Amino acid sequence: MLRPFQFKEEAGWSHADQLLLCLDTGSWRTVHPVVDNDKCSYCGFCSLYCPVQCMANKGDHFEPNLTYCKGCGICARECPRKAIAMEKEGDS
Q1: Both ends of the chain: CA-CA distance in Å?
Q2: Dihedral-angle region of residue 76 (phi above 0 means left; psi in -120 to 50 means alpha; beta otherwise)
Q3: Which residues, 6 or more positions from 59, have their beta carbon under 8 angstroms from its beta carbon?
Q4: For the chain, which residues make up each domain, given as ranges?
């Protein structure tokens, strides 16, 4: 039997003691992050500050999982090298 929810709770942060509800939130945003891999220093600040933890570690850079990204822009604001730009949906 399929459960309608994958996790017990919904939250933007986990203390790793409870399971979270994982929702597809990428369909309603108006902007999304685009990473310039040449500028990325692989510091991890984007991943650290992402409220929904959707920045995936690719080994030499981080890349947003756009299925879960809300388009808040915190990753772009926190990037010290300005390697992340926010683009309007449909522009890329």
Answers
A1: 39
A2: alpha
A3: none
A4: 40-88
DSSP one-letter string for 10-56: --S---SSS-B-----TTS-SEEEEE-TTT-----HHHHH-TT--EE
Residue position matching structure tokens 């570690």: 57
The pTM (predicted TM-score) of the whole model is 0.71
CATH of region 40-88? 3.30.70.20
Is residue 40 within 8 A of residue 61, CB to CB? The reply is yes
Q: Cβ distance 30 to 41 under 8 Å?
A: no
Q: Count of CB atoms within 10 A of residue 83's CB?
A: 22
Encode the chain (92 residues) as per-residue pLDDT tens digits.
444 545 454 455 555 555 555 566 667 789 999 999 999 999 999 999 998 888 999 999 999 999 889 899 999 999 999 999 999 987 65
